[in-house]
């Protein structure tokens, strides 16, 4: 099935567009504050607009479809509930690469409407610009380390959380 993940990239403020938002909430404290937002005001907010929209292939699992996207440099990374990770060009929305993680094991209550623990990828990915890596936890609880530019595996996956648990974020 195809579902829409719409990402709004704001126009008109080059400082903001080049700023990294490499983790959920923008920083390890999840403040949601971006110092480079200082140029926004009520007067110039009407100049903002949607730059692109991208439809990604994914199948929702229970109530989970996609993770919150993260941005580093010119790359936007988002995961989907069915263990896919996408890297998109921040300027155009073009898909740079995607990968489908293999899943080990089977959830205990699969198919029972277990929406409280939907057994889907929910942990938001994190980008480490220094190592050029994106980290993601697949639904089987394994931590993945991929090259942010190519999607190639940089390190074999390691068990990080209990399989099929409800992991929200890596930070």
Explain this structure to me?
The protein is mostly beta strands and 171 residues long. The chain has one helix and ten strands. It has one helix at residues 14-17; strands at 2-5, 54-57, 70-72, 75-80, 84-89, 95-100, 126-128, 133-137, 142-147, 153-159. A four-stranded antiparallel sheet has the order 3-4-5-6, with no helix packed on it. The radius of gyration is 17 Å and the shape is globular.
Mean pLDDT comes to 75
Question: Which residue ranges are poorly predicted, with pLDDT under 50 across at least 5 consecutive positions?
Answer: 1-18
Note the main sheet.
Answer: 4 strands, antiparallel
How many distinct helices?
A: 1
How much is the radius of gyration in Å?
Answer: 17 Å
Query: What percentage of amino acids are in beta strands?
Result: 25-35%
Broad shape: globular
The counted number of beta strands is 10
How widely separated are the two ends? 30 Å
Percent helix, as a range, is under 10%
The order of strands across the largest sheet is 3-4-5-6
User: N-to-C SSE series?
Assistant: EHEEEEEEEEE
- Helix/strand class: mainly beta
């Amino acid at each position: 099935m195809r579902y829409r993940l719409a990402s709004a990239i704001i126009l008109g403020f080059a400082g903001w567009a080049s700023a990294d938002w490499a983790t959920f909430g923008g920083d390890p404290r999840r403040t949601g504050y971006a110092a480079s937002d200082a140029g926004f005001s009520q007067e110039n907010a009407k100049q903002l607009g949607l730059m692109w929209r991208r439809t990604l292939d994914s199948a929702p699992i229970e109530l989970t479809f996609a993770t919150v996207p993260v941005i580093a440099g010119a790359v936007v990374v988002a995961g989907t509930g069915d263990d896919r990770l996408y890297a998109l060009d921040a300027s155009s929305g073009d898909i740079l690469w995607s990968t489908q993680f293999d899943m080990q094991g089977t959830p205990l209550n699969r198919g029972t409407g277990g929406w409280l623990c939907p057994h889907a990828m929910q942990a938001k990915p994190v980008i480490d610009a220094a190592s050029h890596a994106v980290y993601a936890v697949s639904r089987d609880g394994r931590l993945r380390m991929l090259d942010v530019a190519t999607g190639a595996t940089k390190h074999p996956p390691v068990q990080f959380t209990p399989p099929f648990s409800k992991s929200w974020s890596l930070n």
